[in-house]
User: Fold these one by one.
Assistant:
Number 1:
Amino acid sequence: MKTLYVVRHCEAEGQEADAPLTAEGVAQSHRLAASLATANVERIISSPYLRATQSIAPLAKRLDLVVEHDMRLVERVLCSGARPDWQERLLDSFTDLDLSLEGGESSREAMQRAVTVVTDLQRHPAQRTLLVTHGNLMALLLKHFDDSFGFAEWRALSNPDVYRIVFTRPFSIQRV
Amino acid sequence: MDWIIRRARPADAATLSELAERTFRDAFSSLNTEENMNLHCAAAFSPALQSAEIDNPDILTLVAESDGKLIAFAQLHLRSDTPVCISTTPAVELHRIYVERSFHGTGLADELLTEIFKSAEHHGAAAVWLGVWEHNPRAIRFYQRSGFVESGDHVFVVGTDPQRDLVMVRRFKR
């Protein structure tokens, strides 16, 4: 694989697996399709959550590609249930990758799960692949490839957001 | 120990691919996961790839042969993108230089490098640059001894592992 696009889903109604895109999110998904139409993407793999698959549906249709689902791309679970201090804990989780909260995944575990997707891509003949995922997992995947990526960069991610990782030399990670 | 250094020929592709993978694994297996080593080797070494590299006019491959066997090789990339930290231009890249373990310490690497420098100058280069893994002190010492100086760094991905390479440069006196 030469190039990997990592996409965060468009604006959604909520955090549940079946939360749909908002009307604005749907409009964003069409603009996203237009902006990626000429990127020569050969394969699209998405978190099976509705907000992820809906975000990429217009591009998939345009390119006549099937959206493959991969559970390893679902959002990282920081902890079970809502907690008021979640942003602080999330901040901590970017510096202590092994921080593990009750019912949650450590950053390292989540990062490793995302990296195994990339490992599989390295064995596949497709040269340009696009992944659709969620903010925290995307931040961790980008952090694997660039350790300077952290909480601030996570917070700066928009809905949608697109990063391009070029594996051939010169290696690069760029917000598109 | 005796050897000759010569340009690689198309007929070397299969043995060169074997040598390249074996020496790469010898050098780095202990510090990398088996999975990342396998991913890298599958992407970088095969008779077809080495054959294409030997045929590529932008790549110069030198091999050392002893008793009819390839024991070392080096590759110059004449047109790869030069890192921004290299201010001397034109610069060509020493993309690979590997010597079979049993020939380490024999002076073969120095001789191979001398031939590489000659070829680089012959192609009009004012400098040779290379990327070397920060965790390869033996190689770094060898390059320093050969006149290379550190000038920056870049990322080299082995499998899915982003590794920091020192970028080193050896300028030619004009």
Note: The longest strand of chain B covers residues 161-171.
Number 2:
Amino acid sequence: MMPKRTSHTPLTPAVLHILLALSTKERHGYGIMKEVESDSLGKVKMGPGTLYGSIRRMIDAGLICESDKRIDPQADDERRIYYKITGVGQRALAAELRRYREVVTIAKRRRLAYD
Amino acid sequence: MTDEDLIRRFRIWYATLIRLYPKHYHDRFADPMVQTFEDILREQSKEKNRLLSCAFWLFVETSVEICKENLRVIIMQNLVRELADNSYRIAIGIALTAALLLLLFYGAVVEEGDSPGPMFFASIITLITGVLIARLEPYKMFYALFATAVAQVLFTMFAMIAWGQYFEVLVFNLLFIALWIASASLFRRAGKLKGAAENA
């Protein structure tokens, strides 16, 4: 069965990784950047321009929002803004991951993936 | 100069660079962007990596995003809104037609084995620079197109002196000067209409 397509899927790699990074907890920009780098084993590297461009688009699309939490207890800097995933974002992430699973299933069926 | 001094200096430059973002974007993201920029450099410094190459990459990456964001604002917001006005639509049409004709002519000349030289692009470069500064605002577009017409006049004078084919050069360039001026006048009219609508 093909996954149900939501209006937000397919997601761009940057958006997918940001949603993944925010799926476990709220993070600020640099925290998201580090998590994305770690999740992708260093393959996806974003600078502040790309990151905040994606964040702006994702806020406009309702996938994420700013959190009320403002201050990082360790860094203690009020300029930090935390972002969190919304319900729409969680659904878009789930739909995208389902889509990926379907693609992998097809690839396996065609013997394109051998793990 | 210590890493701390370098970071402080880069931070000031970065804060200046991101002022080139559209205002609403700058107001919303300037502080967290500068903070993130500083975080990255501090980590590089802690890991004893080269700060200069990292800062250079961050400046280039952000500059590209600034261009993309400004273009998005120009196209999505200003153009869509302004195109509702007939004068504005015709002005855009004339300017685009003139630019396209000019480029086609350049292609034809090059195909024949001649090269009109870089001065040929004076008006096109003026137009592009003007449009970026004007961000498609009708009144500012009037000045952009007027400046383009002036650049075309200057090119005409240069071409007449350099090439000596007075009649052909004059006829050819008068056509473009007329098109730029026609477009500028329509932008001016669109600006006046917009001003009147806003005051009403």
Note: Chain A touches chain B at residues 28-30, 33, 47-53, 55-56, 77, 79-81 (CB under 8 Å).
